[in-house]
Amino acid sequence: MSAPVAVGERPAEAAPSTVSGASAPALWRRYRVVLLVVVLVLLAAVAIGVARSRGAQARLDPRSVDPEGGRALATLLGDRGVRVDRVTDPTTLATGLSSTTAVLVPVPGLLDESTARSLGDASQGSVVIVDPPGDVLEAVTADLRSSSVVSIRVRSPGCDEAAAVAAGDVLIGGSTYESDSGTRCYGEDGEAAPMVVGTTRGGARLVVLGTGTMLTNDRLAEDGDAALGLNLLGGDGSANELRWLVPAPGTASDGESAASILPDWVVPAALQLLLAGLLVALWLGRRLGPPVVEPLPVVVRAAEAVEGRSRLYRRAQARDRAAEALRSGALARMVPRLGIDSSGSGEPSPAAVVAAVASRSGRSDAAIQAVLFGPAPTDDAGLVALADTLDSIVRDTLDPEVPHQ
Fold this sequence. Notes:
Blueprint: H1 24-57, H2 71-79, E1 83-87, E2 101-105, H3 113-120, E3 126-130, H4 134-140, E4 144-155, H5 162-167, E5 170-179, E6 183-185, E7 192-193, E8 195-199, E9 205-209, H6 225-232, E10 241-245, H7 266-284, H8 302-315, H9 319-338, H10 350-361, H11 365-373, H12 380-398
Parallel strand pairs: 1-10, 2-3, 2-10, 3-9
Antiparallel strand pairs: 4-5, 5-7, 6-8, 8-9
Helix pairs in contact: 1-7, 3-4, 9-12, 10-11, 10-12
């Protein structure tokens, strides 16, 4: 019969095992949900970035080819000798205006009070503002006032303004304005109109439009929309430079927050991704439950565990620790059966244990004292003798009817 193998030892004939990582299919099954969530978040981030970049150009940007952009109008103006300058700093909009300079403000929300007043102080050139709020309109001119809102549809000029008469019917509407001395076009009641031609506080030509829809790429080729845009912005030969104000990258317009330019689906999609991430975190997170019994990789018999521990003691020459373990085991078996009163101290005194064991085993107190509480053996033979003696005392103490051998 082969010798038993202690814990921590390997048989000489056993081949070393090879530790390998998890296979690719196992890794995929383990992390596929996490990878899916990461991919969805990245796709959402890309979609939001594209939506924001497109949304920032959607409001009559001369570089934008989107349906709401103004690239077509800028190209037509360039073909007629008008240099289109794309301006992102509103403070430079009114600097050095001349009689051949036109200004287009399709996003009047970019103008603060001081910038609007500096534009209103212009004394020459032409200023075109699309759907300005009341405070901007008041800062630019003292002659025009906001009125009501009408539907956007194709309308006839109904005025003698040369630019409107040459253009004819155009798609216009939106906000309407009143003026005491300005020319009102495309109105119905003769009081308020979606296009009014007047002057700034400084005396420059001012055109206020209720909407800029007719100037977009999508609508420029219909009706007289292109003609109206060209006539108002210098394409008729009245200007050779157009300053076109657009939002700077990362800025909001019309007093709105930066998130307002995002599509309506972005916020619900982001919330759904967040909820999905939380559910995955709860699913994969550590949960405290009842203990689970798992099979041990190696079942070690009790005798083998004792032998292995004994070899460790022997290798370290720890006879004192081995003797202490033997005596503790013997006391743990005998003391509960002796009925010794510990007087509230928790453990009985050595003297009480010696007296009780001597009485039960028939040995002398000195012999019991030396075996249970004496010094540790100095060699292996003494340790073996101690183990045998302890075993004999335990048998005699727990079964005093058996005669002492």
